[in-house]
Specification:
This is ArgG. This protein is an all-alpha fold and about 200 residues long. It is built from six helices and two strands. Helix content is about 65%, strand content about 0%. Helix 1 (about 25-30) runs parallel beside helix 4 and helix 4 packs antiparallel against helix 5 (about 130-165). About 25% of the residues are buried.
């Protein structure tokens, strides 16, 4: 009777990662410059200086890094800028998601108001906007906000590349595994001891 040799090396464990928000996700969620200009024109809103916002935020991060250069080592600077850029990207993505919901609500309200058989969607007294119009205007405001934050995020990502010398990637932290309790770990150790 031969006994298998016990594997002294524990099995490799795959640790799932919590995916961070990328600049690509921001670009998909937030309007671009062309769409933002069209929205501004259609709703009578101010036209944003997209390139100015981007350039200002790029300069802000580059200047911040220059001011901190003597006090931070290379790795500390990278970690610090990683967090700052991550905050900008996360904020822009949140604004983009909010904008998307506002557009959906505006579309739903507009579609409902186009139905002649519905009494509750009839416009209010003269001089007051309909609910659908208010939702469209709100979505337009959210478009400008999302676009402005997108351009700020793009500027900080460009600055990161300039300062650190590599492309920014979101930090991906391991997913905490609440199912791995002390009892389970103890059971695994006990079973391993039994062979």
């Amino acid at each position: 009777m031969t006994k298998k040799a016990a594997n002294s090396r524990p099995g490799a464990r795959v640790v799932p990662l919590r995916k961070g928000t990328t600049l690509h996700m921001v670009r998909l969620a937030c309007p671009d410059s062309g769409q933002c200009s069209l929205i501004s024109e259609s709703f009578g809103l101010p036209v944003l200086d997209s390139n100015g916002i981007r350039d200002l935020h790029e300069k802000l991060i580059v200047d911040t890094a220059a001011a901190l250069d003597e006090g931070l080592g290379e790795r500390a600077m990278q970690i610090h800028l990683q967090r700052i850029v991550g905050a900008y990207v996360g904020s822009a993505f949140g604004a983009g998601q909010f904008y998307s919901r506002a557009v959906s609500e505006a579309r739903d309200a507009t579609a409902k108001s186009a139905c002649d058989d519905r009494d509750e969607d009839v416009g209010g007294p003269v001089g007051f906007d309909s609910a659908a119009q208010r939702k469209r205007e709100f979505a337009a405001d959210m478009a400008l906000q999302a676009h402005a934050l997108r351009m700020a995020a793009e500027g900080t990502v460009a600055a990161y590349q300039q300062v650190v010398g590599e492309a920014w990637k979101p930090f991906e932290r391991p997913v905490e595994n609440p199912g791995q309790t002390v009892d389970r770990k103890a059971a695994e150790l006990q079973m391993a001891a039994l062979g």
